Amino acid sequence: MTAIATDAPGSGTGRAGWHRRAGLLPLAYLAGIVVVGLAHPFLPEWRWLAVHLLLLGAVTNAIVVWSAHFTAALLRIPPPTSRRGETARLALLNVGVLAVLVGGVGPRPWFGVAGAVAVFAAVGAHLLWLGGRLRAALPSRYAVTVHYYVAATVSVLVGIPVGAWMLVVDDAARPRLVLFHAHVNLLGWVTLTVLGTVLTLWPTILRTRIVDGAVAAARTALPLAVAGLALLAVAVLAWWPALAVSGLALVAAAVVVTARPAVQAARQKRPASFAAWSIAAGALWLLVALGADAAILVTAGSPDRAADRFGGVLVPLLAGFAAQTLIGALSYLLPMALGGGPTRVRHAIERLERRGPQRVVMANLALALFLLPAPPYVRITTSMLVLAALVQFLVGAAGLVLARKLPVSPDASTSPDALSSSDGSSSTKDSLMSSNAVPAPGRTLGSAAAGVGLVLLAVLVGVAGQHLTDPSAGGSSALAAPVAATGRTTTVTVVAEGMRYHPDRITVPAGDRLVIELVNHDNRRHDLVLANGARTETIDRGGTARLDAGIIGGTVEGWCSLPGHRQAGMTLTIEVSGSGDEHHHTGEPSGSASGPPRIDAMADPGPDFVARDATAPAVAPERLHRLELRVQEVVREVAPGVTQRLWTFNGTAPGPVLRGRVGDTFEITLVNDGTVDHGIDFHAGALAPDEPMRPIEPGERLTYRFTATKAGIWMYHCSTMPMLMHVGNGMYGAVIIDPPDLPAVDREYVLVQSEFYLGPEGEPGDYAAMQAERPDAVVFNGYVSQYVHRPLAATAGERVRIWVLNAGPNRSSAFHIVGAQFDTVYREGRYELRPGDPGGAQVLDLAPAAGGFVETVLAEPGHYPFVSHSMVDAERGARGVIAVEAAS
After folding, report:
1. Pairing of the two strands 813-817 and 732-738
2. From CA 786, how far away is CA 751, in angstroms rounded?
3. For 269, what's the count of Cα atoms within 13 Å in the CB-facing half-sphere?
4. What is the CA 120 to chain-centroid distance, rounded?
5. Angle at 279 between CA 455 and CA 371, to 5 degrees
């Protein structure tokens, strides 16, 4: 083999410095993956970002830089007089990559499309450069490697436009396009490049000769791989699974053909470096991924399901193959490319080889455990070990590339590019590699054992974390209520969807064996764990699992063990019926609870539910407004299946909305039809509270008269102590006093936010929970999530005004409409924003008893959720939807 070398130090091109700068690019993107991995709870699109940081960022930069390097060396191309062309291609490539990353996760997808055009142009220019070098070069034994690079580059040029299309179009063809884009880019751009490079790089790393037949094997494998890739691409677009698997088989055959001489070389010289171990492990993961890919295509049944399940292929293909191969190759190439003489190269190699066995063992064993059906917290700890292995490489590589004061050999005549010769012709190889110390067997075993130990520790930490966060709740049928087995089996299908189990309550005849068929229709992973120890594996969307719950003799609780899912309400209860004659699941709760009922903020109230009309009342023409408010204690449903005894004004919580203008007079007669004393306080009036706000006994009445002198939306509420109990149990309402010259709008709504602190079913609220500020629900207009199921209406282009009052009694409100911006904000008696102002607003923040209104124009048809942006309150029920229809 010819030496993989191009420029000498005196050529004037500054190759070592150029490679130092170019070497930073893959490292920077790999560091970005670490940041995304650590910050993923705060990044909704973290998976997309991580994939593209690796493939489009790190791998693509490495391929463009090093395929040009190998092409020049293998075709014996003279060193260039300038690197402006290479630098310009890299600059254009990385501007495009950054634009794609921004456009892919931000609100401007066309920015990502422009980035894809830049990437396409840069890679296209690289293809032209490769083709020009092939045409100009003399015949070379190793030109087949460059043919691999050409085929790989053509593949990615086919895949880039599809990726750009998916940034802006989401239609029924998307699953097929996802499969096409992923296969063409991963198996074309990445795999073809690797197969071509290992022909010369692998024996160079092993410090041995290229075995006989290796070049012929490479020439045989290339058409196999290209044909398989083309067949696979067409088959996934047309959704011919059998043909797609045939294409995968051809690609796998190409991998095996090129692997055979690599294995022979490894037999001649046992791999003893981190670079060699990493590349070998990457090859094994590639074969694992191809097998998993074939299994998914065969069993998926539809392109939608195949695209959903392709994540099971991405992990071994990206982390096991692509990332590990890249890190292994860079561990060898960076020291050689930076050069500086044998001593400097030796020091650089030693730096990147530190703790090599530990890193390889830790990363691959942790990745294998991550892919197994392990508990969620074990998957978290093992994934952090894979990330830690990447950090270990980055620390050494970044220090190497950025170093300026490494020891330099007196032999300044050595080329910085003297990557070793595999036919033994380079004396530089002997001087460098003979002095490159290989770790002693004992040290290697010790380092590998440390990797195993770290993985075992991670598993223990994960198991402990799983136990601490998911303690057993409820009784085990075997322990809590031993019962004679009936010999019968009850089988129930449970569907996971919307962060809930459906049904979430199962009744089983005592003594029956229960088998649960779990089906995941949600867009996230779930499992089912029972308090008696039975559990399913974690299943993806569309997946199924079978759980044998054993003989059921008492109540058994179940939950999803993924972090946060149980806390979000993903629980299930198994109960026994009193008779052994029932064999079917009823789904109905049995028995009664003495404590407060459980609110499901996502439950559907049913087809007969009628939401409170949120339309703002019109202003009456008269200037004197008379109203009788009767205190009534009523049992009302406050959430699906949950009732409370509320203290109300006129039977509703909130009470009636009153409306007038500045200068209007309100005469309110309060009649106490309740069982305890009550009073009333109107914030819209300014007067001494002694008489009008005094409490009155049951059966009494009082008249409260005030004149509205200030505009705003004002709270009224019961004035009797303890006021927290009275307000917290439903005694509040709103008075709107229009600001002068308030313009007309197309739609106008009123939302009153409040809280429920549930007592026992059908009883008043829990005063202790009110004092502790532990609400069971936070709602708009007195019912949990009612406007999710009965949305407010609007038409595209209409101006919508929403008055908001926060009745509390304890929680602040942060009113926000998803997908909208407010051009008008009026809060506590004054405008904070008007149309025509240069800025906008996203939230109306209100303390308890505060109020105001916002206005917006919803330009596009669609469904616009509104929430209190205190997310815990939104999840408690302070949310709804505005359904905007197209203008006629």
Report:
1. unpaired
2. 12
3. 17
4. 28
5. 40
User: What count of Cα atoms within 13 Å lies in the side-chain half-sphere of residue 655?
Assistant: 32
As a whole number of Å, the end-to-end CA separation of the chain is 74
> C-alpha 341: how far from its chain's center?
47
The CA distance from 617 to 713, in Å, is 13
Q: How long is the chain? A: 888
Token reading at 665: 């007079």
User: Which residues sit opposite 577 in a β-bridge?
Assistant: 509
Dihedral angle, C-alpha 379, 380, 386, 387, nearest 10 °? 160
Helix and strand numbers, DSSP H then E, in the chain: 24, 27
Assign 3-state DSSP to the chain and report helix, strand, coil percentages, each to 5.
45, 20, 35
Adjacent-strand bridge partners of 634 = 646
Cα R_g (the chain), whole angstroms: 35
- Give this prediction's pTM: 0.57
- Kindly state the helix (H) or strand (E) to which residue 727 belongs, with its residue range: helix 723-728
Using one digit for the tens of pLDDT, what is the confidence trace for 3-54? Answer: 344 333 333 345 555 655 676 788 888 888 888 888 866 666 777 888 899 9
Nearest CA-CA partner of 638 in 788, 498, 813, 781: 781
Contact assessment for residue 642 and residue 817, using Cβ atoms and an 8 Å cutoff: no
> Is 673 within 8 Å of 637 (Cβ atoms)?
no
pLDDT tens sequence across 727-779: 999 999 999 999 998 999 999 999 999 999 998 877 888 888 898 899 999 99
Residues 6+ apart with CB under 8 A from 216: none
Look at residues 315, 316, 318, 312 and name the one whose alpha carbon lies nearest to residue 288.
316
Yes or no: say if 583 and 549 are a contact pair by the CB < 8 Å rule: no
Distance CA 322, CA 345 (A): 25
Q: Where are the alpha helices (DSSP H) in 721-828?
A: 723-728, 767-771, 786-789
Pick the closest to residue 383 from 334, 437, 323 (CA basis).
323
CA distances from 333 to 19, 61, 339, 345, 397 (A): 10, 14, 10, 10, 11
Q: Hey, which bits of 811-869 come out as E strands?
A: 813-817, 824-827, 830-833, 844-846, 851-857, 862-868
Can you tell me whether residue 707 is helix, strand or coil?
strand
Strands 712-717 and 681-682: antiparallel
Q: β-pairing, 844-846 with 732-738?
A: unpaired
According to DSSP, residue 11 is labeled G
